[in-house]
Specification:
- This protein folds into two domains: about 30 residues; about 160 residues, Beta Barrel (L,D-transpeptidase catalytic domain-like), CATH 2.40.440.
- The chain is about 30% helix and about 25% strand.
- The protein has five helices and eight strands; from the N terminus they run ααβββββαβαβαβ.
- Strands 3-2-1-8-4-5-6-7 form an eight-stranded mixed sheet.
- The chain is globular and about 40 Å long.
- About 35% of the residues are buried.
């Protein structure tokens, strides 16, 4: 069967459209970038600027939005060069939510409070500890100055896994540490590493 030039070009155009469509559909199906509370992000960036003398690396930062419920992803890892953001679950301290309502009510820097502290932290060394591979944190503000003494760290915990939300509608609580799900913890250890800002606040 002979095919005219017009039929050939029409078929080629149709085939080309078929090849383009999946890529376009995939692009539309990609999840949107997580949105960080603008006021919180502004505070975090201001803290990065103010604490620059203590923060060795300003390429990636962590932001914990404790104004959100624990059932929601509220820990963000932000690449300031590319704008790429990932969001994760994170537990707050028992002392910050004594009745276990699933949201942070109080911050505390007191020894033995088992509460979450607010403010700017700088990530320290990674080590193998009580909760496995963990990341030390040093508080840079009066509101979290006891972080090292309280052994406030980034670690993984079973009670921070998303399945806790599926079963109970909220995460479990830490002793004041930033407890993350396993996969999120692995990303935080690699992308935050040592010498970067972690900012925690409730706005």
């Amino acid at each position: 069967m002979s095919v005219s030039r017009r039929q050939f070009l029409g078929a080629a155009a149709a085939a080309g459209a078929g090849l383009v469509l999946p890529a376009r559909a995939f692009a539309q199906a990609r999840p949107a970038q997580p949105v960080i509370n603008p006021a919180l992000k502004e505070r975090a960036l201001a803290a990065l600027e103010a604490k620059r003398g203590r923060i060795r690396n300003a390429d990636v930062i962590g932001i914990a939005d404790f104004g959100r419920m624990s059932r929601d992803p509220r820990f963000y890892i932000v690449d300031l060069r590319s704008g790429f953001v990932t969001e994760h679950h994170v537990a707050h301290g028992k002392g910050s939510d004594p009745a276990n309502f699933g949201f942070l009510q109080y911050f505390s820097n007191e020894m033995g409070s088992e509460a979450t502290s607010q403010g700017a932290y700088v990530t320290g060394d990674a080590y193998q500890g009580k909760y496995g591979y963990s990341l030390r944190l040093d508080g840079l503000d009066p509101s979290n100055s006891n972080a090292l003494a309280r052994q406030i760290v980034v670690h993984t915990a079973w009670y921070a896994e998303p399945r806790m939300v599926e079963s109970f509608g909220k995460l479990g609580r830490s002793e004041g540490c930033f407890a993350l799900p396993g996969v999120s913890h692995a990303e935080a250890m690699v992308r935050l590493g040592s010498g970067r800002l972690l900012y925690a606040e409730k706005v």
